[in-house]
Design brief:
Chain lengths: 151, 151
DNA sequence: AATCTAAATGCAATTAAGTCGCATTAATAT
DNA sequence: ATATTAATGCGACTTAATTGCATTTAGATT
């Protein structure tokens, strides 16, 4: 009864308890921020958003991001500007992103035909016999932002 | 006769003259370095290699890279480590890279089936109707490096 | 060939993203 | 309630990249 109650409105505590990490204000806020964001967020985005709720230091944010990343709680993503961005790790595993250049909203994709085409292509390479990974990110304008760009 | 002679061993001057840029030692060396590199090179890689031939400053290298990039002489590439890398621009246009994580050697690819799969996939997106671009980079171990990684 | 001038360079200072050491604080096990 | 150890805050530092400014130089002009 009590356990059920706790679970329902404190879902963001799970990853911390699960990995025996101390439940601090900064970490709770960071998780909250990532869980509710429709965008991929940079360390600085996260720093700003966390600090609207609790006082936290950049070094703490960076260290927390590293900790969470190495535990698989969050994923790092490189887009095309060299800035690392973060998202809550997907249970689905391998996937890619479509990012709106207007508002930053992200749609997650994992498309079997594309993966198959990539696999076929990798067999045609001249200098490579082993492909270990790939990055694939798409950029576009989301339906909400299309009107703004029509102007 | 004279023109032919000049062309044969000074191909790297063409882009400079073509764009009415001054032909300096640093720029010649930078072009030479990029033209002969089987790898994508970071600004710092280029700085080091250029300075084996002529004395040049980092600021000069960065400015030259910007100039060349905006004129389409070279292309910028983001891999997965946040460092900008450069290559001589391909006349072929749109293409992707396969990068050896051992030695950095790059194979250039442009695969119609993959592009078609990406195109099909983009039509299935929920939040997007317009896709403007995509990045796709593959990582693997090249045939020369496979033996080293077997150890 | 000597001179002129805009373009390019070298140098130093600056910014931005991220990291690290260390003393202090605070979460949680006892 | 206390002890222990993880986590934090702060400041200094690193690395990639940018910028202002005085000097130099490529190449056009005479």
């Amino acid at each position: 009864m009590i356990a059920v109650h706790m679970e329902t409105h404190q879902l963001h505590l799970h990853p911390l308890k699960k990995h025996k990490l101390k439940v601090t204000k900064s970490r709770k806020a960071l998780l909250q921020v990532l869980e509710t964001s429709p965008q991929l967020l940079s360390a600085d985005d996260i720093f700003e958003k966390v600090n609207k709720h609790v006082a936290s230091d950049r070094a703490t944010i960076y260290r927390t991001l590293h900790t969470f990343e190495s535990l698989g709680i969050i994923d790092q993503v490189q887009l095309n500007d060299g800035l690392l961005r973060y998202e809550i790790a997907h249970e689905h595993g391998h996937h890619h992103h479509v990012v709106c250049t207007g508002c930053g909203v992200v749609e997650h994709i994992s498309d079997a035909p594309t993966e198959k085409a990539l696999h076929n292509m990798s067999k045609k390479l001249k200098q490579f016999s082993v492909i270990t990974e790939h990055t694939l990110e798409l950029f576009g304008i989301c339906k909400k932002c299309v009107p703004k760009h029509k102007v």
